[in-house]
Design brief:
Radius of gyration: 20 Å
CATH topology of the largest domain: Quinone Oxidoreductase, Chain A, domain 1
Structural class: alpha/beta
CATH class of the largest domain: Alpha Beta
Shape: globular
Largest sheet: 7 strands, mixed
CATH superfamily of the largest domain: Medium-chain alcohol dehydrogenases, catalytic domain
Number of strands: 15
Distance between the termini: 15 Å
Length: 324
Amino acid sequence: MTRAIVVREYGGPEKLLWEDVPVGEPGPGELLIRHTAIGVNFHDTYVRSGSYKTLTLPGIPGVEAAGVVEKVGTDVTAFVPGDRIVYVTQSYGAYSEQRVLPASVAFRIPDAISNEAAASLAVKGLTACMLLRHTRRVLPEETILVHAAAGGVGQFLVHWGKHLGARVIATVGSTEKAKIARGCGADEVILYRNENFVERVKSFTHGRGVDVVYDSVGADTFDGSLECLGYFGTLVNFGQSSGPVPPFAISRLAARSNAVVRPIVFHYLRERSARDAMAEETFKMVLAGVLTPRIGLRVPLNEASRAHTALESRSTTGAIILTV
């Protein structure tokens, strides 16, 4: 047996229950992992609340974690006991002390990167790689708008976007978060609670608009994000922290020949070759100092409800880690 966070019914953070659960032996192609650090994402809150009904209840949430290999199943040649690994999985189960995991979804952690750093950047770093390099490849001298720029993915988008030669406009919710966005290299920072971000974007771009909007906020910002696009611009909606985007008339995109994309990082990780390439590129950015994993809050695994409360209140900056 091991200990884990279990969701038995949808609801608030109080629905995250600390329970004993069975953990088996690794079968062919599998690893037995002892977790050391677990990443917390908005995706986890959507699963817990029932906004995403993708976890079979009762079930263990969590899609990313780092840990140490304790046992390997037959046919596993890429890992041995003692290896430090990090993984991203659509099958959930990361909110646990131990688990059995397909070896195919694990990546070995480079020596220069800690387990906590790896767990904090697995989903967020791979998401930034997907957004900037695959969903809509950003080119030098393009202008991008990043909402929630002080968050975990937001900071990576600002840093990596600047590295690619883009001009970056960031929106944040407080002066403290504005300092973080500027520290990441943002060319312009907008306090969206105090300022009209559409007007500020148009002023900064002299009416031209931006080439790409990266929007993880959803309902509250979607219409304004569309207004910020220039000709042939793309709105990449990759989250819904303020709620899902309601249906809209596709004819609205005709005003400037725009596009809207709703990518899911797991879809880009379906093939092993693609997973390895994206992980290699992301780790390369970390080792080069382009991306710096910043952990804003550490919470013991058995207090996962506190981590969800902090994330949903938007009171944190950087990543949230559950420690084991």
